[in-house]
TrEMBL record:
Pfam family, one: PQQ_2
Residue ranges, compositional bias (Acidic residues): 27-47
Residue intervals of the Pyrrolo-quinoline quinone repeat domain: 180-286
Listed InterPro entries: PQQ_b-propeller_rpt (IPR018391), PQQ_rpt_dom (IPR002372), Quino_amine_DH_bsu (IPR011044), WD40/YVTN_repeat-like_dom_sf (IPR015943)
Region (Disordered): 19-56
Native source organism of the sequence: Natrinema versiforme JCM 10478
UniProt-recorded name of the protein: Pyrrolo-quinoline quinone
Amino acid sequence: MRRRDALATVGTLALAGCLGLESPDQNGDDETESNESDLEIDAEEETEKLGGGDHENELELDRAWATAFDVEYGGRLVDETIYVAGAVDGDEGIVAVDPSGGEIEWTCDLGDVPYGFYLSAGPELVYVGSAQQDRIRAIDRRSGTIEATAEYGTAGGDSAIHDGTLVTGTRHAGENDVLVGLDGGTLEERWRRSAELAGFSGAVVADGVVVASYRNGELTGHDPADGSELWATEFSIAGHGYGPFVDDAGRVFAVDSERRAIARIDPTSGEQSWTIGFETQTGELPTIGPPAFDGDAGWIVAGRRVIAFDSVAGDRRWSIEIDGEVTSPVAKTGGTRWVHAVGSDSGRLYGFGSTDGELRYAGEGPADDSDHELFAVENRLAALENGTLVGYDVRSLE
C-alpha cells in the first residue's frame, strides 16, 4: 500500500462514466409479476420542463484539484472518502481519495480493476464485490490492507451490515443464487439461504431487519442473525439501481419498475405506506439514480426527470423534466442539488434549489451519453471524466 500525492492537472468541467445510474436489466424482468398493492399511486402533478438554453447562473464552480488514474471504472462516496475502481502506477484495484484536496490516501492492489463493482462500508472495513468476480473482499478503511477474502459467487448488489454480520447475495441464475450471512471481520460463512429468489439486487438494514431485493420480482425481509425470512412481497425490481435504499433515519425505499413508482417500505412487514408515480417519455423503463436524502426530503432521478419528495409523507415537492437524459444520480452541496444530463448535441451540468427546484446553475459538461458520477462533500463537487477525478469549489455569485 502506498500513499501518493494527487496529480495536478488543468482541464474543463467534466464527469465520467461509472456506476451511479443503472439501466433496467434486459434479461431479468421478462417474467416478473407486478406488485398487486392496494395503494393508490400518487398521480403525476405538473412538471416544469427545462431546456438547454442560456441561463444566468447564481453559482460558480472553481476548479480546485484533479487526480489522474491509469484506468477507472467508477467510484463511490462513503462518508468523506471517494473509493474509485481504478489503477495508479500499475496497482489495479480500489483507490481511496480525500475529496478535500484530491490526495490519494491509499491504493489496494486487487490484481485487476473491478468492473461493475459494489461497495458497502462498516465502521472499520469496506466490502468490495464485482459483477465479474466470484469473490468479496474486506478492506481496511484506514490503510487499504485486504483483511479477508471470500469466494462464493458473483456479486449482484450492495451488501448490508448489522451487528458484525455482512449480508450479501449472488446473481447467477435460478438455483445457483444464494443469500449469505458472513462474519464481518473474517468473511467466514455464518448462514446461507439457497434461493428460489433469482438475481440478488442489493440489501439494506433498518429496524434490525435486512431488506433484500431480487430481479425475479420480490422484496424480502430477513433476520440478520440466521437469515430466516420474516416476510416477502411481490415488487418488480429491474436492477441494482432500483433499490432498496435507506436514508439516515432508517426509512426504506424502492422503485417498482412495472408500476413506475417509488415506494416507502416498512422494513418490519414489507408493507408500503405510500407510492409516488412517474411517467416516462417512451414508455420504456427509465434509468434510475440512487436517491439523495436530507432530513425528511428526498431527490431521485427517473429518466429525464428529477423528482423531489417528502420522504415521510410521500408528497411530491417538485418535479423537473430536463431536455436530455439524466446520466448521474443526484449530488447535494448546501442548498443545491446537482445532476448531469446529455441532450441532442451536448452534455450539461444542472444545479437546482433543494426546496423549490429553481435553476441555480447550468453549464457545459461532457457530450457523451454514458452514465456519469457526481460526488459532493460539504460545498465541494467532484466528478470523474476519462480517468481523472476533478474537484470543484461551489461559490455563490450573489
